[in-house]
Amino acid sequence: MTGAILAGALVGLGLYALVRALFPARPGLAARMAALDAARRRDLEDAQAGTVRPEGRFGGMRARLGRELVAFCESRGWKMRSVRADLAITERSLEAFLATKFLLPAAALLFIPIVAGYFALLGFGSSVQVPVWICVLFAALFFFFPDMQLRQEAQARRQDFRHVVGAFLDLVSMNLAGGRGVPEALMSASNVGDGPAMRRIRDALGNARLTGRTPWQALGGLGDDLDIAELRDLAGALALVSDDGAQIRRSLSARAASMRSRELSELEGKAGERSQSMLVAQLFLCAGFLVFLAYPALMRVLAS
User: Fold this and answer.
1) Where would you find the membrane-spanning parts of this chain (predicted)?
2) For the whole prediction, is pTM greater than 0.70?
């Protein structure tokens, strides 16, 4: 009964996917304009970053599949702001991410006949229910695996970016103390480092100068794109006190000190967690050693 229900569900899902593929929903004018703007923005970002599209048959199929999935999501109005922010901070494309999320579960489902044949060789019968459920479970795990990996990498990148922002605030404060204006101090401070975070800040400030935007608007936009609250707070503070150089200098110094203190507290917390984990591992090791010592005596007592 369960196999018949599962087979009917798979057939129904296949028919639904076939109908949706043959007769796709027509996106509205706003969705089409948004898709055109997103495609132009991706082309501009690739041209600025010098990104090379993957070559070869598999790379071309993967890129084409990614573009189709991105167009599908944009036509449905799915923004995926958190995913886009994580991809932006890790400098990865949305097309490759969506293609990976689709291909990994599909590859897991393709192993159903292989797992069924392996179970038959082991003598567990010719039923396909257990292999199907095993492959479906792995497909679900593979579907969420890119999200977990992306979130972990983005968290590490944001931590490094916050550290760079703290150093950037100190550099801006020193430039303001030297008599420079706010735009000149921001640009001069961004030219000090060559890391990825400082390069993103420098590019944002340079683009703001070309497009006629204020530097704090550019920093706020970068904070929104990368989901970094420190940049948004910095943009708000600069917009409020942009005319008072002494007040900006004191505010930036206080923000830099606060960021360093918070970073130090986080590092101390992580060190404490690792110390606790090492203590638990030592306790397990001692318990295993005691069991190893007591096992022969216990067996001798039970045997007698």
Assistant:
1) 6-23, 102-124, 130-148, 279-298
2) no
